[in-house]
Specification:
10 helices; four-stranded antiparallel sheet; globular; six-stranded mixed sheet; Rossmann fold; binds adenosine-5'-triphosphate; alpha/beta
């Protein structure tokens, strides 16, 4: 029988010496990272640093060439079982949906419930209530029946977040969740993530280029460059102009 610690380990994510390559492009060059349960970790760094690739290692979609990844007590280095993937919510960078796709906002959000109950099983009334709850909470109540492709980029981003939260994940992976949003939407989405993170005690990993927001929200940050962890520590200590100038080569985006 597995001990309580194995089922509920204090470290939610444990990555050791991860190497990932896309053919000849090496995206991660030996990354090691431990994320305690309940932490909100910011992941920052220049374009192409490997931030998205690191998220794919955690959600089991990235293939490790070398190294090891353990998530919620399971070794996923050789693949992530569907049951574990359901415990991990993923909000990718931009949904890029064809406007002719005949699926509604509600259908998209309901996919998160399918993640929970299994693709071929019907969501129960309780799942439908959860779908309604999150559609309202992300501010899409009036648009629930509209084709997803007819929504603006910011509205699609809200739908993607609702889909992930309907899944009631223990780990939430966010890839630039506020990129392309106007100021008001950005604040609203981040506030929503903040309250969901707290209420549900999730472990949240957020890739972002918004340094000031990350400094205000994240418990800890890792800075990545050229496929490596360049620095890690408390947000307030690392997200300072002189550090960011060195990371980006004096072209940091202070967003
Ligand atoms: P950004 O801030 O631009 O989103 P990132 O830090 O998230 O960048 P990744 O998307 O992880 O970076 O990419 C890391 C490296 O891997 C880049 O050099 C990129 O070109 C390469 N890469 C990413 N995905 C693929 C892919 N599917 N096929 C080939 N190369 C890829």
């Amino acid at each position: 029988m597995r001990s309580a610690n194995e089922q509920n380990p204090p470290v939610a994510i444990f990555v050791t010496n991860a190497v990932v390559a896309y053919r000849e492009d090496v995206a991660l060059r030996g990354v090691s990272l431990a994320v305690p349960r309940g932490e909100w970790l910011g992941i920052l760094g220049p374009n192409g640093a490997g931030k998205t690739t690191l998220l794919t290692v955690v959600n089991g979609l990235g293939r490790l060439l070398r190294g090891r990844a353990c998530v919620l007590g399971r070794d996923i280095s050789r693949g992530c079982p569907a049951a574990l993937r359901r415990r991990i919510g993923y909000v990718p960078q931009g949904l890029r949906i064809d406007p002719r796709m005949p699926i509604s906002v509600r259908d998209v959000v309901r996919l998160g419930a399918c993640g929970r109950v299994g693709l071929l099983r019907r969501p129960r009334p309780a799942d439908e209530r959860l779908v309604d709850f999150w559609i309202e909470r992300v501010g899409l109540g009036a648009l629930a029946g509209r084709p997803i492709g007819h929504l603006s980029g910011g509205e699609q981003q809200r739908a993607a977040l609702a889909r992930a939260l309907v899944q009631e994940p223990e780990i939430l992976l966010l890839d630039e969740p506020t990129t392309g949003l106007d100021r008001v939407s950005r604040e609203e989405i981040l506030e929503l993530i903040r309250s969901a993170h707290r209420e549900r005690g999730m472990t949240t990993l957020m890739v972002t280029h918004a340094h000031r927001k990350a400094a205000a929200l994240c418990d800890r940050v890792v800075l990545m460059k050229e496929g490596r962890l360049w620095a890690e520590g408390p947000a307030a200590a690392l997200l300072r102009e002189e550090v960011l100038d060195r990371l980006y080569g004096a072209e940091g985006d202070g967003g």
